Amino acid sequence: MVAESRVPSLTRKATFSVGLSEARGLPVALLMPSIVILLLVVGFPMLYSLYLSFTDYSLTNTAGYQFVGFQNYLTLFKDPVFWQAFGRTILFITLAVNLEFLIGLVIAQLMARVMAGQSLLRTLMMMPMMFAPILVGFQFKWFFNDQVGLFNNLLYAFTAQRHIIAWLVDKPLGFISILLAEIWMSTPFMVIILEAGILSLPKEPFEAAEVDGASGWQKFRHLTFPMLTPFIYTALAIRSLDVGRAYDLISIMTGGGPGSRTELIWTYVNRLAFTGHDYAMGSSMSYVTVIVSFVFTWYLFQNVIKSRWEGRG
Fold first, then answer.
1. What is the pTM of this model?
2. In the list 41, 44, 161, 278, which could disulfide-bond 155, CB 3.0-4.6 Å?
3. For residue 111, what are the CA distances in angstroms to 69, 182, 216, 226, 232?
4. What CATH number labels 74-312?
5. H helices of the chain, where?
């Protein structure tokens, strides 16, 4: 009787184990179509591009192509235009991200203090993000046009300035023009992330500081900013990677020119691969950029952001 009573129990346990294993495998089965599509759409082109970076493949070479090893990378590292574009990209990222952060922090602090109409303010603040970068590029290209542009006309109207300023042609002004366009388009992202962080901060430390007579600056310096650092580093990391692959805005406004005055990494990749038909060199430069971005992201998330979030917890 005891042995017979154990049979249904064992059957139920076996059925439960089978059902549990099937439930665990269900997410993998549901994700498998997406994984296959990603491998086909993303994985294969990346591997093929990596292969091309070790060849001399070019559309202008009718004799075929051959494996050349690391020759493309060695040639690239000797290219002064590449190093200029690389340094200009680092400068562009540094200025754009830090200015967006400073402006976004001020606006986020002000918006967090608003008691009524926050939803409307957030919607209005996000409007620049709703425009496609190509549209923003055309918009600011007209703003900085030397003949009919908005900025030159404003200078004519409100100052005694009658000299035509070639914003997109002069060496420093062209870089500043695309920098202003990037800041206008992407600062709302910083505002939304930082405001979300500010609104999630605990109230008790601020109430205690208020009782102790702390000023607004003291509360910001010793409470708000330290507790906000995980959100700050996350926003800076995302924006750094996003600005690092900027292409469409610069391509519309200046095309990396005139000459190479506003050339960034991805405009130079486009000029080599698609304009010059040298896919091998374009692939090599792309992978150098990808490796640098990967190392930067890994270091930032493993050594900075992770420690900040753990410290906050």
1. 0.81
2. 161
3. 55, 22, 16, 19, 17
4. 1.10.3720.10
5. 2-38, 44-52, 71-77, 80-113, 118-125, 127-130, 133-143, 150-158, 171-200, 204-211, 216-219, 225-244, 248-253, 265-270, 279-299, 306-312
Question: From CA 281, how far away is CA 65, in angstroms rounded?
Answer: 13
**Domain range annotation of the chain:** 1-52, 74-312
Residue holding tokens 């009787």? 1
The Cα–Cα gap between 45 and 58 comes to 17
Which two structure tokens, joined as six digits, stand for 295?
């190392």
Element (H, E) at 165: none
Instruction: Give 10-residue mean pLDDT values along the chain (313 residues).
Output: 50 51 70 86 86 85 81 89 89 91 91 76 81 88 85 80 79 89 91 88 86 84 86 86 83 83 86 84 87 81 63 55
User: Residue 67's beta-bridge partner residues?
Assistant: 55
